Amino acid sequence: MSAxxxxxxxxxxxxxxxxxxxxxxSEAFAAPLRLLVGPGARxxxxxxxxxxxxxxxxxxxxxxxxxxxxxxxxxxxxxxxQALEHGIDSVPDAPAALREFFAAVEARPDWVDxxxxxxxxxxxxxxGPDGQDILAYGSLLGGYRTAAGLExxxxxxxxxxxxxxxxxxxxxxxxxxxxSPGGMARDREGxxxxxxxxxxxxxxxxxxxxxxxxxxDLRGVPINAVDQAATIGTFSTSYLLHARLLGIRVSRxxxxxxxxxxxxxxxxxxxEPQWLPRTEQVGRRVLYQFVSTDPGPDENGRLLAxxxxxxxxxxxxxxGRLARRWRRERALSMATLLASPRGMRELGLxxxxxxxxxxRIVANLFWSHLVGRLPGGRGVxxxxxxxxxxxxxxxxxxxxxxxxxxPTGQPQTQPPTGxxxx
Length: 422
Hints:
It contains 21 helices and two strands. It has 422 residues and is mainly alpha-helical. Helix 17 runs antiparallel to helix 18. The longest helix is centred in the middle third of the chain and has 21 residues.
């Protein structure tokens, strides 16, 4: 079956059963976002149909390229990597499918603003030492509360110990690439990793859509348009909400720039235009519409959540028993606030009083609300955040970047596959 034939067959399917599978749960999960958005949060009837259809839509541009690699054997992965690193013109006799793909991703939209990209990158990193906790226990752990897009992650088998560390490290490497100075320029890592993620998602879809045991009636397309867009929401909308919850000051100008940065990253990754979080208000409304129709938690979420906590234990193993205990308790305290006590219960994780977030809130009020407002204060925060990030990466990975999984699922040393929701 060709890529176009497979696409046609999916559109003829009924709405997957995951759509509003447990409306009481999903409405409760989405209630804080609905309050933030205010009137007009709920989707219109037309938007409902687009959302339902999104569960059966894939990134067709990536699908055509993967079809050319896997089925037609017209494109090789060395050709793709050469084009990714050095441009399509560096590939001798480049195949048509490869040219089509790079012509699309290199046609940067007119709305992209380089100054806003740079400001968004600086502002993202300025969140400082809490940024990694927000990504792990707010974005990832919060995403595990819904079964929406977890099955492909679980099928990768990379759930525990060093495999979980590697997977989270890949997500971190992509985030670092996108938020590095100039990182979203064509020849820089953020741009390349975002495009690489897009193609790797295409390989995952190619494999799972042809698996005899993929439950189309329940799940729809494995990595569908809705779940792709929700991923960007966790790194933009959700990231900002959790930062403010921890007492971190984010100005309107910086918030606008962060949303702009992740809108462009999402565009590169194939997120459909109507769901790009172009402003914080748009991002909140879109994310509300996703989570208010998501299914509730399942065993996949509990497996992934426990793997994330195992990873915390793995980090602390070299520091002795007390260090190991402290890091675990610290992680559970932060996770209880960011993922909510109800979320911890749903994921089968122990809850803890928010003693560590309370300490961080006090520190953040001093640094971001007082020091950050002084002359030269932003520079102080930027340098402090850079040192904190360097310490975190050194503690997590030493001098080595984590091995990266390629389209076959085997470790390789190419750019990371990034992340999806959760």
